[in-house]
């Protein structure tokens, strides 16, 4: 893993763990400016899912990181990578496309498979790490709070 | 226009005007629960673009309305219509798909054309009203603050 990916994924996983510790959905994200070749990478912002903590319907990990980043000039996104511990849902996928973020690094896509194909069809580079740490944390949460998880992805819970 | 659409579009346009009055991007949205046939429609929440007001990169009109609605059970979205004064960008399109909102009513799509085809390809009913009021308010804003508008849709402003 290169320096950009280590910086971003470490921050995203830390956010996921923090969210879990708060009783929330353990999905974390980070936005890293990687600039042009040779530039030092810079962590712009991090975030985690806030459904439970803030009764939020839109602050998924990725949206939260983008929101915490504040207003950025369009060219900043175009030289950045977004990291997320779990495959991005259609809303977060759409946010990545809106800002034309060229690169997405995903911890795992076993517990949920989002808009990876749509991203690729728009020329976005998508990397799935297959992280065991991400998989087991998310699987634990889904076992513990299936209804909250289903609500987060718009699925009805079948009793 | 039926009762649901009148309720929703009136609220969305009011939000757009409020945002303009605050110096913000004049895009408004509303989420209306239309229930099953014969049920009284209910305005769940409204919102407007908050880029300028809250230095927000994610609170577009539709995201703002969904956020203001708070946590809802998945089946509520499935019996609701979302109204927006302007065609939804890819992020807002993705949010509509995430929550499987079955119906989207759009004020206009001349100043910006978003993910209408993607919505339709997922079976979402999309209605474009072609509102002159929505068109002229948005056009006025774009003339006055082109850079802010471009930033909102991730476009670089060419001097
Ligand atoms: Ca927190
Ligand atoms: Ca306001
Ligand atoms: Zn998401
Ligand atoms: Zn939008």
From TrEMBL, chains A, B:
Main location: cytoplasm
Reaction catalysed by this enzyme: cytosine + H2O + H(+) = uracil + NH4(+)
Compartments reported by the entry: Cytoplasm; Nucleus
Source species, domain of life: Eukaryota
Coiled coil: none
Enzyme Commission no: 3.5.4.1
One protein family per Pfam: dCMP_cyt_deam_1
Pathway: Pyrimidine metabolism; UMP biosynthesis via salvage pathway; uracil from cytosine: step 1/1
Keyword Cytoplasm carried by entry: yes
CDD domains according to UniProt: nucleoside_deaminase
Gene Ontology cellular component annotations, sorted alphabetically: cytoplasm; nucleus
GO molecular function: cytosine deaminase activity; diaminohydroxyphosphoribosylaminopyrimidine deaminase activity; zinc ion binding
Cofactor(s) required, per the database record: Zn(2+)
Gene Ontology biological-process entries: cytidine metabolic process; cytosine metabolic process; pyrimidine-containing compound salvage
Domain CMP/dCMP-type deaminase per the UniProt entry, residue ranges: 3-126
Catalytic class of the enzyme: hydrolase
Cited InterPro entries: APOBEC/CMP_deaminase_Zn-bd (IPR016192), CMP_dCMP_dom (IPR002125), Cytidine_deaminase-like (IPR016193)
Keywords: Cytoplasm, Hydrolase, Metal-binding, Nucleus, Zinc
Family indicated by similarity: Belongs to the cytidine and deoxycytidylate deaminase family.
Quaternary data: Homodimer.
Function: Catalyzes the hydrolytic deamination of cytosine to uracil or 5-methylcytosine to thymine. Is involved in the pyrimidine salvage pathway, which allows the cell to utilize cytosine for pyrimidine nucleotide synthesis.
Name the UniProt record assigns to this protein: Cytosine deaminase
Species annotation: Phlebiopsis gigantea (strain 11061_1 CR5-6)
